[in-house]
Specification:
The chain has 399 residues and is α+β, with helices and mostly antiparallel strands. The protein folds into two domains: 238 residues, no CATH class; 123 residues. Helix content is 49%, strand content 14%. The protein is built from 15 helices and eleven strands. The strands form four sheets. The protein has a four-stranded antiparallel sheet with strand order 8-5-10-9. It has a three-stranded antiparallel sheet with strand order 2-1-11. A two-stranded antiparallel ribbon has the order 3-4. Helix 2 crosses helix 6. The longest helix is centred in the last third of the chain and has 26 residues. The protein is globular.
Length: 399
């Protein structure tokens, strides 16, 4: 498990959570789940972790042909997680929830060992965000009220446990990461390592694109895409091919953008530019492949798709070395780069510590929290069942 990518990502954990409609209520209590001589986790923390793991496992199970969303039978199916590990779903859920709890304990221990001050504005911000999500949900500003209190409290999760597992944990996890890998830390990353990683893994690119199809709307307001005629498509491809030659002859990309705007009567900048790690980029595979084959300060054209989906790209690859100052020596970009470099390493470090953590389990209480407790039958299925029952009753009465 990689907590920096999984439970460290608050929004992911919250968005995939299934609403607790028609669940079996669990009373809030002060029972503990795991404890050491320094940390004691209430059962609500375990329940939150189990519910989050349940949602993750359900997502894996939903990809299986035998998955049935109207039944909790999928808990007995073998699933494969993002790391390629296979396990029976219910076992995976319990193991994942325990790992999450152990990671909470490890992070608390590291905060104390490293002397990190968790008071002040950062902690206040974490609490404020948790309170907002708990009482009105993350989309209240858009008029959608989805308080997480309604989703978690029926499962015995108090606000304190919710805050501990989400915003507070994310804040502590990040603080420990930065303390270890930042300046003066025991795992400090030096400038030469930053530069090496940045220049070897990041790509500076820009592009302009044009559709080789046109969209029309009929009288019923239905849209339809149709490929351009060969003549019209050639005008675009010839224009872009010409720009690529000019770029490769030394004309700047900005000058090409201005020429394109003038030629096509545009006022807004039609180009897209980025400096990013292509491994995690949302660019299509065709563009990633092209950029991987290109040299610095080279341009080329690439056609993606065909017929009524074809798009023509003019792409330009800049010199990544020219971005070093803006990324390696800018504090904000440096922190993002550091996270990209070391997040997996740090996640493994925490996991390894978790495996070595000696803690006491309140097994009799933990056993009361079974994965099937978090199953919620889809409303459509419930409605269908009710309808079927009504029909059966009516049929029986008429006999």
């Amino acid at each position: 498990m990689k907590p920096y990518a999984k439970i460290g990502s608050l929004l992911l954990a919250l968005i995939i959570a299934v609403a607790a409609v028609g669940c079996t209520p669990i009373s809030l209590n002060a029972e503990w789940a795991y404890r050491t001589d320094k940390v004691e986790l209430p059962i609500g923390v375990y329940s939150y972790s189990l519910k989050t793991a349940y949602s993750q496992a359900q997502n894996y199970a939903s990809k299986l042909a035998s998955y049935d969303e109207a039944s909790d039978s999928w808990l007995d199916l073998e699933i494969t997680d993002d790391d390629g590990d296979k396990a029976i779903a219910r076992d995976w859920i319990k193991n994942e929830a325990e790992t999450m709890c152990l990671n909470y304990i490890v992070t608390d221990n590291l905060v104390e060992e490293l002397g990190i001050d968790m008071s002040g504005a950062t902690a206040d911000s974490a609490k404020k965000t948790a309170e907002e999500y708990w009482t009105v949900g993350p989309y209240a500003s858009y008029g959608y009220y989805m308080p997480y209190k309604d989703q978690y409290e029926p499962y015995g999760v108090s606000f304190e446990s919710f805050e501990y597992c989400t915003t507070l944990y994310n804040t502590k996890y990040t603080a420990v990461f930065e303390k270890l890998y930042g300046e003066g830390g025991s795992k400090e990353v030096k400038d030469d390592e930053f530069i090496s990683y940045f220049t070897e893994n990041y790509t500076d690119y820009k592009y302009i694109k044009a559709n080789l199809y046109e969209s029309t709307t009929d009288e019923s307001n239905n849209s339809k895409d149709a490929a351009l005629s060969d003549e019209d498509a050639k005008k675009i491809t010839d224009e872009f091919d010409g720009y690529a030659k000019e770029l490769n002859n030394g004309i700047s990309f900005d000058d090409i953008v201005n020429k394109y705007k003038t030629a096509n009567s545009l006022t807004d900048d039609p180009s897209t530019s980025a400096v990013e790690n292509l491994k995690s980029s949302s660019l299509g595979d065709e563009l990633k492949t092209a950029l991987g084959e290109m040299k610095a300060n080279e341009a080329k054209t690439v056609k993606v798709g065909s017929g009524n989906t074809a798009v023509y790209y003019l792409i330009y690859k800049g010199d990544i070395n020219s971005d070093i100052d803006s990324y390696v020596y800018d504090s904000t970009q440096r922190n993002k780069l550091l996270a990209d470099m070391k997040k997996d390493e740090f996640a493994k470090y925490v996991d390894d510590l978790a495996q070595k953590t000696d803690c006491e389990k309140n097994q009799s209480v933990l056993d009361q929290y079974k994965p099937e407790l978090y199953f919620v039958k889809p409303e459509s299925s419930s409605a269908s069942s009710s309808s079927s029952s009504s029909s059966s009753s009516s049929s029986s009465s008429s006999k």
